[in-house]
Amino acid sequence: xxxxxxxxxxxxxxxxxxxxxxxxxxxxxxxxxxxxxxxxxxxxxxxxxxxxxxxxxxxxxxxxxxxxxxxxxxxxxxxxxxxxxxxxxxxxxxxxxxxxxxxxxxxxxxxxxxxxxxxxxxxxxxxxxxxxxxxxxxxxxxxxxxxxxxxx
Length: 152
What we know:
It is a single chain. By secondary structure, this protein is mainly alpha-helical. The protein has helices at residues 2-6, 8-14, 36-50, 52-61, 76-89, 109-120, 136-140, and strands at residues 19-24, 94-99, 126-129. α6 (109-120) links the parallel β2 and β3 (126-129). α3 (36-50) packs across α4 (52-61) and α4 crosses α5. The protein starts with a helix and ends in a 12-residue tail after the last helix.
């Protein structure tokens, strides 16, 4: 996944104005890095770093986030609300790549991320790519996602 994102052809096809966000979950990472909270913090940081005007919009719409100083200050509900507002404020295409669902720290981790994906699915300018090894959770879910099966 990382190779694909760093490939200049990928960037060219996504478009020069697109915001490209990614999160690679690593099993040796800290617990927060293997949680939905860590994923959302990382994506939100990338989003406002790539487009600071989004930060201005979010600060205006959700003034209470000005008191959030470190990752322990954020509630998951607050993070989810904030990133949704930030993504809706983006006036250009946003692509999110999340890799390593099987490395999440809890048994409910992948399901929690899929709930988060469902929340974001209504945002018009957003596309998500979440590769995964075949798993019983993803194959038995009642959710319908567009997917490809790759075999090597």
